[in-house]
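Re: that chain you flagged

S.,

Sorry for the slow reply, it's been a week of failed gels. I finally had a moment to sit down with the sequence you sent. For the record, here it is as I used it:
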Amino acid sequence: MSFQWIFDNAESISINKRPLVSQTIARDQRVRSISRGGAVWRFTVKMPTGMRYSPNRGYIDNIDRLNLITSDTVTLTADNFDWMTGYRGSATVTNTMTVKYTTAQAASDTALFELGNMPGAVGSTLFKPGDLIQPTGSRYVYSVSNFVYKGSSSTQLFRVHRTILETPSNTAVTFKVGNEITWTLICTKCPTWTIVERDIVGWNGEFEFYEVL
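Prediction finished late last night. Pasting the structure tokens below so you have them in one place:
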């Protein structure tokens, strides 16, 4: 556990999942924007100064080993992250719901999942904007973009924050929700560390992580 230790002990975490945008302003002041995709999860993590080196030297050594080369998995499941990643819908059971991304959906709208096996009564809130889902067997995490209410049909479409990266299939799969999900990340900025005074470690910058696609 290396990158996970960084997140669990962070002083601050910045999350950016916006797509890349190309924007130009013409001489008549008209603004033209186009999305270039690339809505990957990016995390900037600042570590606190004042941690003791001696009980954490093993974690620090593993960080040096992973460095900018090896990816690692991270989950935000600790109690202090529940407000950030916890499920906010009203379903008492979420692990029976399924999602599907078919060839027909991929041809019409690449950001729509088909939701099935929905629990609860008609009109109940299954997802709120910002809820996180991760299809079973996938390393990709998606943020739900709209309120999702159970309708009277057996399936319904719902939108996520980016183009779906799964291979289109007619097979429905279950999925993880909220703080059950995990990201596969690689470090793109790995600060060095300095021991100050006696047994106190300080970091010479912030960590930056990108989702591995």
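What I noticed first: The radius of gyration is 20 Å.

Talk soon,
D.
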